[in-house]
Amino acid sequence: MKSNIFGTGIHALVLATVLSRTILAAPMADAELANLEKRTCMSPFALGGALPWALIAATKITEPPAIPVTIVGNIGVTPAGAITGITAGEVTGTININNPAASSASATASSICACASAAGPTSTETYFDISGKTFTAGSYAFSAPAVTVDAGDTVTFSGAGQFFMHITTTLTTGANVVIALINGAKPCNIFWIIGSSGTIGANNTFNGIICAYSSVTFGMTTTQTGLVLAENAAITLDGGTFTKCS
Question: What's the CA gap between 104 and 36, in Å, rounded?
Fold first, then answer.
């Protein structure tokens, strides 16, 4: 199991970890590794070789076989995972099971998420329920380890720039939550840095790159835009639409 570089209080270790873990996760194309070395933790952060990917997990990606799902982008598991319930016809991209492409994408995504984690919070909010809140570009922490969004509520991201949401343990959203983008905010400029697991409720419209140390579970018919990384565990789907960054 990889060390948790998505939690708080360890940002001084991240720069040393980024390149070492990437090299150990080889094979990675020499050009991609060189590019990663050059851009290590340079802002604004970009996905690089992980850009074509929608879902990356360590152990498994699962989907109930009787429920349709639409995935726009590559999906993969590594180093010893499985993908179940998803057909090639449901994926606009490639399905990668413990192959070099999955290993390379996972290493790149993990490194970028580590850099996002290293952009330690500049603001600690006095709340942990972010229902109804509006955020401008910046790096945020919260008053409790677990962050929640109530069913039917909206969280809004406003304006250009990047957003870093530092969540020490878990992120949990209720049903019918909307992550709204206004005034030029883009889904892949939002980083949800989760120290443990994410649970995204049914019928959510969710935006952002999800960097979860453990697992990510999606409720029925959720729409997600942005890479999802479950670094040490599984991604569980229940129908819906999942779209890579563009």
Answer: 11
